[in-house]
Amino acid sequence: MPTPAPARFQRPITDVIADTPPGIVPFSVEFMPPRDDAAEARLWNAAVDFHDLGAAFVSVTYGAGGSSRERTLRVAKKLAQHPLTTLVHLTLVNHTTEELEQILQDYADAGLSNLLALRGDPPGADPLGPWEATEGGLEYASDLIELSKRFSASEHFQVGIASFPEGHFRCENLEQDTEMTLKKLRAGADFSITQMFFDVDYFLRLRDRLVEADPEHGAKPVIPGVMPITSIRSVKRQIELSGATLPEGLRRRLLRAEQLAAESGQDEVRKVGIEITTEMVERLIAEGVPDLHFMTMNFARATQEVLHNLGMAPAWGTELGHDALR
Ligand code: FAD
């Protein structure tokens, strides 16, 4: 008989989002471990706001952009204790299998049983450079899923993965990308969260291609990763990092806003960026997404503005409950 999951484990993400009352689309947010005291304060303010706004779950990145790995565990533990359902990321970069097992053990000891299993990118200045597995480590995210399923501390974890609306940059074509994503879903992952995108059609095509290729595993929830647009600089950075396509219409709207900003001195790009993000999210909701996962960079404001436009949150600046975490 299979052993039951330890009682301290958090509820699986897919149960949490499925329990949202009908007519309400759940949302969740991604945090990064802070690097200094100011960033730490900002993170906890945002965590309080998102708790009070009713986020279904929060996620904490691992080693992304060089952030400290110990901080992922510390931040995730604190978020989980408060209590927010917490999805903790883990990557293979610079880890042996033994170390990965120790981290899975640490997550299990903290009750952090929702894992986003990732390969990670090469550390250092060029994340798009060649990938080299660590000696004694693992090669692909699917290996981490398999490890988590056979390691006793994490055998009951619910595991999510990354998926890529425009295909992962190391894949030769979309067919290969679809197969590799399905490999992770067949290895036991229960849902995916996508890389951010500017064109909703790419997200919809990814969802369709997964189901078409494998009606069983391909039908697992695909959660769109949404990054609220607040500046031209951040749009350019995302295009550089992820290769996301910026549709011509959006490019023109943002450039017009930039011109207007130069004339008026107002932050027109942010205003138009939030409008664009709201329109994208409205379409995703109409397409029946299971959850909206906002990449917040630890700022609450832009996400709250989008949620407000959708009638899912009060306007920014409104006093929220602030009854938890403090
Ligand atoms: P994999 O699934 O291992 O895929 C890597 C490449 O190998 C792909 O091209 C894939 O198609 C190919 N591949 C997979 N299996 C095989 C196989 N058996 N044979 C041949 N080819 C194969 N990075 C961080 O450092 N920290 C984070 O916290 C983080 N969070 C993220 C959250 C989300 C939602 C997303 C979308 C990405 C995140 N990333 C993070 C970035 C991620 O680590 C990179 O995009 C990385 O390049 C790919 O990771 P993966 O888990 O998809 O890798």
Automatic annotation (TrEMBL):
Question: Pfam families under this entry?
Answer: MTHFR (PF02219)
Q: Extract the Gene3D superfamilies matched here.
A: 3.20.20.220
> What cofactors are annotated for this protein?
FAD
Catalysed reaction per UniProt? (6S)-5-methyl-5,6,7,8-tetrahydrofolate + NAD(+) = (6R)-5,10-methylene-5,6,7,8-tetrahydrofolate + NADH + H(+)
Its pathway, per UniProt, is:
One-carbon metabolism; tetrahydrofolate interconversion
Q: Which GO terms describe its molecular function?
A: FAD binding; methylenetetrahydrofolate reductase (NADH) activity
* Biological processes, Gene Ontology terms: methionine biosynthetic process; tetrahydrofolate interconversion
Q: Would you say which domain of life the source belongs to?
A: Bacteria
Q: Which family does it belong to?
A: Belongs to the methylenetetrahydrofolate reductase family.
What protein am I looking at? Methylenetetrahydrofolate reductase
Organism annotation: Corynebacterium gerontici
